[in-house]
Write a structure and sequence with these properties.
By secondary structure, the chain is of the alpha+beta class. The protein has 7 helices and 7 strands. The strands form 2 sheets. A 4-stranded antiparallel beta sheet has the order 4-5-6-7. Strands 1-3-2 form a 3-stranded antiparallel beta sheet. The longest helix is centred in the first third of the chain and has 19 residues, at 3-21.
Length: 180
């Protein structure tokens, strides 16, 4: 079970929420599609209940930098509950990722960004990146990512509708599953 990858993903999601919404010392609940979580953990499971049981039995998840994680099953979604102390740890000890912080600022400052403006932000990091138009029916117009995973490993799917440009971040595996 890839516990380190799982914890890193949780920390990155909490950090994104804190950058967007501000920090509040509160319990955080994240929900993962079962298949996405299995991919993240590099495990296979038949049902959500089976996965939750594996997570509960994993000793490395009972005492993490985020505290003890709690798990619940909601059909094909797995709930992960992170303690107040876990939220505080991310706020106090995890530096703001430079790329993500700037990406959030870009989208906060301009509600209707062009793909050229978004590409300009990616270019400013002087690392090779990919910008591809997505196929119709995928719910997004473009995907941008750094193939070398520097300075960021997420896939940013972009959509403009009704005068607003939005992004959603996906892991590479979840992005690939989105295309199926």
């Amino acid at each position: 079970m890839n516990v380190d990858n799982f914890l890193e993903n949780i920390i990155e999601q909490i950090k994104e929420a804190q950058l967007k919404l501000g920090y509040v010392k509160e319990v955080i609940r994240l929900y993962f599609p079962k298949d996405s979580l299995c991919s993240l953990l590099d495990v296979s499971c038949g049902s959500g209940e089976e996965l939750v049981e594996k997570l509960r039995q994993e000793k490395r998840l009972s005492d993490t930098v985020l505290g003890s994680l709690q798990f619940s099953c909601h059909g094909d979604r797995i709930g992960v509950c992170i303690s107040l102390e876990g939220a505080a740890y991310v706020h106090d000890c995890v530096p703001d990722p430079l790329f993500l912080k700037g990406m959030i600022r870009l989208f906060q400052e301009a509600h209707c960004l062009s793909i050229e403006e978004i590409c300009g932000y990616f270019e400013s990091f002087q690392e090779p990146f990919v910008c591809e138009k997505m196929k119709p029916g995928t719910d997004f117009d473009y995907v941008l990512y750094f193939p070398e995973h520097k300075p960021d490993s997420w896939y940013y799917c972009i959509r403009t509708e009704m005068g607003h440009t939005i992004y959603h971040r996906f892991t590479e595996a979840d992005y690939r599953a989105l295309l199926v």
